[in-house]
Amino acid sequence: MATLTIQQLISKMIKEKAIDERIQWRWSWGNHEECRRLFAHIFQSVDGTMSRYQHLPEYEKIIDWMTDTSDKGLLLIGDCGRGKSIILNYVLPVLFRMKNKGMRPVHAQDFYKAHPYQQNYGYYQRPEVFLDLLERSAFPAIDELGVEGQLNDYGEKCEGFNLILNAAERYHRPVFVSTNLTEEQILNRYGERTLDRLMHLCRTIHFKGDSLRR
Q1: Is the dihedral of CA 119, 122, 127, 133 positive or negative?
Q2: What is the pLDDT at residue 114?
Q3: What does residue 129 show for φ and ψ, rounded to 5 degrees?
Q4: pLDDT over 70 for what percent of the chain?
Q5: CATH superfamily of 25-207
Q6: Closest CA to 175 of 194, 148, 193
Q7: Which residues pair with 29 in a beta bridge?
Q8: Which of 4, 16, 38, 198 is deepest in the core (most CB within 10 A)?
């Protein structure tokens, strides 16, 4: 039997699930001007409550990401009422569908709710919840991080978000999060390890200014 090259050996081990595959994730939806027009068009189209589209400075950073994802997800962080949830729940899923990929954002309050997609479980098992879906998702997306409680799994309490980040780091998955928490609040609640992983997996975009809902 011929000796395998290192790459052949790694491919064989991934196929056998002896090791996990870790690959870079780079997409683009065009140059900056093309992405700017696309972002504005999607944003206006998905939000029928808007009377007038207002292009905010932070949107330019998302458009930069659209030109080259550079192996990063997005952490949308900061002041409320400036479009973070619209971007996460509507704009990004449309962009992903353009690449023939699916993204299913989950509101943090729903982490521990049973999901309707798989409800077959054994007598000693708990029903699957949205947290389980996020742990398996190739593109985990969480809206309003910080409003959820802790996971109580047979008396053991832990932060569900930490479990999502553990899986994302293991498989090198981009993560998408919107939150009104500051970096310091994320650190205090979820710990240094999770904050470090979040910064590694995401491009951070700060939303600062008055709410557009006023």
Answers
A1: negative
A2: 84
A3: -120, 170
A4: 90
A5: P-loop containing nucleotide triphosphate hydrolases (3.40.50.300)
A6: 194
A7: none
A8: 198
Other CB atoms closer than 10 Å to residue 193's CB: what's the count? 13
Question: Would residue 191 be called left, alpha or beta, if left means φ above 0 and alpha means ψ between -120 and 50 degrees?
Answer: left
128-160 in b/e burial notation, b at 16+ Cβ within 10 A? bbbbbbbbebebbbbbbbbebeebeeeeeeebb
Model confidence, pTM: 0.86
Residue 124 has pLDDT above 60, yes or no: no
Give the pLDDT of residue 120. Answer: 57
Residues 6+ apart with CB under 8 A from 61: 203, 205
Higher pLDDT, 22 or 39: 39
Q: Is the dihedral of CA 44, 47, 52, 53 positive or negative?
A: negative
Q: What sections of 107-147 are H helices per DSSP?
A: 130-136
Tens digits of residue pLDDT in 176-189: 999 999 999 999 99
Residue whose token pair is 């790459």: 7
Q: How far is CA 164 from CA 147, 156, 168, 188, 197, in A?
A: 16, 17, 6, 17, 11
pLDDT value, residue 90: 95
Give the CA distances from residue 124 to residues 152, 154, 158, 180, 192, in Å, rounded to whole numbers and listed in that order: 15, 11, 20, 37, 34
